[in-house]
Amino acid sequence: MNIVLIGFRGTGKSTVGKILSEQTGLKFISTDDEIERANGKISEIVRANGWGYFRELESRAIEYIVREEIDNAVIATGGGAVMNSKNVQNLKKNGKFFLLIADKERIISRIRDSDRPSLTSECIENEAWKILNERLPTYLSTADYIIDTTNLTPKETAEKIKEIMKKLSAKNDS
Predict the structure, then answer these.
(1) What are the GO MF terms of this UniProt record (predicted)?
(2) Whole-angstrom Cα distance, residue 76 to residue 98?
């Protein structure tokens, strides 16, 4: 069973995923890292080809994970990955979805100085509000579990996920 981390940028998916991987020995896969390894920096991909092309690359990375039958991994998805229902179907075949959320101010403070390309042409505050509102219903309907990372360290978030997975494992064993 894979642990699939979903949520808006800046909620801690990659950071928490790496910690979970280190603590559990599970393989860590970041769809963004896989895309960059094969195609170059995301900011350059988006600048040259647009978000639509990036989303195609993201779907291909997810299809690869499914095709390779990767199991017992921590998978950090891009913030928009779950907006494509096929990506959700593919990852749900063998994964539990953990939605990482945080309040808007915390998200903005986490992403303000990053080199992540803008999702819209608006300022970061307006963009975060707009995109979060668009995506939140899909995030909520897709998630198996929701963890608010606003006041948690990445290690505390990883611990919460491990506790849930331990309970799931015990439940499945009985």
Answers:
(1) ATP binding; shikimate kinase activity
(2) 10
| Letter string b/e over residues 98-112, b meaning 16 or more CB atoms within 10 A of that residue's CB | bbbbbeeebbbebbe
- What residues contact 127, with CB distance under 8 A and at least 6 apart? 118, 119, 120
Within 10 A of 66 (CB to CB), how many other CB atoms are there? 16
- Give the H or E element holding residue 57: helix 42-67
Alpha-carbon distance 32 to 68, whole Å? 18
Separation CA 33–CA 174 (nearest Å):
37
The per-residue pLDDT for range 51-88, each reduced to its tens digit, is 899 999 999 999 998 888 888 999 999 999 999 999 99
C-beta contacts of 112-115 below 8 A and 24+ residues apart: 114/9, 114/10, 115/41, 115/43
How large is the angle between the packed helices 13-24 and 154-173, nearest 10 degrees?
Answer: 60
State the fold for domain 2-173.
Answer: Rossmann fold (3.40.50)
Helices 31-39 and 42-67 cross at an angle (nearest 10°) of: 110
| Whole-structure pTM value | 0.91
Query: 113, 105 in Cβ contact below 8 A?
Result: no
Query: Domain extents for the chain?
Result: 2-173
